[in-house]
Amino acid sequence: MSANTVAVTDKSFENDVLKAEGPVLVDFWAEWCGPCKMIAPALEDIGSEFKGRVTVAKVNIDENPEVPTRYAVRGIPTLIVFKDGKPVAQKTGALPKSQLRAWVESSI
Question: Name one Pfam family in it (predicted).
Fold first, then answer.
């Protein structure tokens, strides 16, 4: 992870996402996923652009199977915006950075 994204695990999800102050954009991804790698730089940029307004968190589904199962993640990348501990918006698949930015802006 980098300065603009936070690695989240099954164990840390409750504190890092559900009890977080402010909205959290969770990226469910895997190392072997090409589209996940494609959007990673855009998510880094969004993490920087929205710093202080939204936290960008990444959950590796291979290492952390509980949380993706709880939120019915069927394909990756899946992005879910959480506010006040509840999912409020969800997208599956790779999108261009401009569309990701607009979606995050409208979701927070």
Answer: Thioredoxin
